[in-house]
C-alpha cells in the first residue's frame, strides 16, 4: 500500500526535521511525499508593490520548493519514494485541506515551530489548533531536531469512554511499519471502570489481538498530562498517539500548556488521529 504524506514547509530547519523524520519512518514503504508551501506576502505599509516584485518573490519560493525536493531525493534510500511539490496562494489551512482532498493524503507530517509549524495554530489569536481545523487525516507533529529512532514502542492513552472503530486503523498501520508494540494507557485504576468502559476495553483488546500490545494503568494523581509524561519515560515510548474526540483528554492537551511542553520540547513525536462521526 502506498502512503501519501503531506509535509507543509516554510523552508525552516524545523520543517525539514519533520520531513526527514517522515522519510526515515517510511524508509521501507512505498510513499509519495508532497511538499506544500502556502505563500503569503505581508507588507508593512500600504505603499505600492509592483507585480514584478511579487512575481520574483513567488519564483524564489518555487525555487526553494524545487531545492527541497532535490534534497529529499538525495536523503531517500527507497527508489519507490516519489516527491511532489505544491505551491499555493491560499491560506495554510485551506491549502492543506485542498491538498488532502486532491491527492488523497493519508497523513500530514509537520514541525512544531516556525511559521507553518503547529505553534502558529496552537497559540494563534483564535486559540484554535490545526488539530481541530484539519480533521481529514492523521497529523504527525515532530519536535525540532528530533533524532530518529525506530518506533518500537507506541503509546496510546485512552479513557475507554467510547467504542473503537476505524480510528484505530492508523495506529495499527503505524505499528505494522516497524513491528511496534502498542502500549495502551488508562489513567485511573482498572477496578474503577464502568460497565461501558469495560465493554470498550474488551473491544480494544479484540482489535489489538494480532498486535504486540500491553494495557497499563496509572493512578490519577495530579494532571493527566504529567501522568502521560511519566508513562513516556517509564515505557521508553517513541511515538505518542491519541484520537481527537470532541470533549476528550486531548482537548485538555490543547487548552493546557502540555502541548507546549510535550510538543515544542518533546522527546518524542505526537501522532493525532481525528475522530470522524
The helix-and-strand class reads alpha/beta
- Named CATH topology of the largest domain: Rossmann fold
The name of the CATH superfamily of the largest domain reads HUPs
Number of domains: 2
**Annotation, overall tally of beta strands:** 10
> How much of the sequence is in beta strands?
15-25%
The CATH class designation of the largest domain is Alpha Beta
Major sheet: arrangement of strands: 3-2-1-4-5-10-9-6-7-8
CATH-scheme architecture of the largest domain: 3-Layer(aba) Sandwich
Based on Cα principal axes, name the global outline: elongated
Structure, explained:
The chain has 2 domains: 3-142, HUPs (Rossmann fold), CATH 3.40.50.620; 153-269, HUPs (Rossmann fold, 3-Layer(aba) Sandwich). It is an alpha/beta fold. The protein is 39% helix and 22% strand. It is built from 10 helices and 10 strands. Strands 3-2-1-4-5-10-9-6-7-8 form a 10-stranded mixed sheet, sandwiched between helices. It is elongated, with a radius of gyration of 20 Å. The model is unreliable at 121-129 and 254-265 (pLDDT under 50). The two termini are 25 Å apart.
